[in-house]
Automatic annotation (TrEMBL):
Protein name as catalogued: Ribonuclease E inhibitor RraA/Dimethylmenaquinone methyltransferase
Originating species: Chaetomium tenue
Amino acid sequence: MAANVSAVEDPIVKQLQEYTTCDVSDALVKLKIHNGGFLPGITMWSPQRQDGPTKIVGPVYTVQYAPLDDERPKWPNHYIDSVPAGAVVFVTSNPVTSNALYGGLMSTRAKACGAVGSVIDGRFRDLQEQKDLTYPVFARDVGTTPPGPLFKVVAVNEPVKVCNDAQDIVIHPGDYLIGDVNGVVVLPKGLAEQALPLMAKQVEADSKMAVAIQNGMTFAEASKKFRS
């Protein structure tokens, strides 16, 4: 992708719209990313709770929270005012906290900026407000307490590490985040062009398998015929 192509014009985003998070993970497994880029424990909360056709696809815009005593200075401006159009906002903290990292006003501004959704590696709040905005939010859970008493933003649009379920995933700015009812997957930018043809091939094979199985073929037979 050329450097001057915006997120809303990105042809890879357009192609990814055709695939589910499961399709993306299948392709990444074939590329030896054994966790398939899956971010465990993060599910859809808005505009519906684990229901509906909501899908978000876009380059990631990362936000890192850390404790107030972290040696890094607090980010001088509010990160939400710099969200690029077409981006997916990704907010995380190290260490984890029971305080909510994100709220309704953040989504109000993100939506106004043209963001396609937000993924919170932690808790968020103002659930009804999020739903009323019909703005996509994926998160680990809900909460009520803001981050300010304990945490501060220390980095924006820099690589962040997600550590959970015995796996470490580093998310870089510009990597693609895909979210749907199945969960959230990160597709490294450098693998996108290799992964897309694998997705197309897998979806075609699985569609043929489904028809064959419905017509009486066993799964093993169909797999051998269409996936080999």
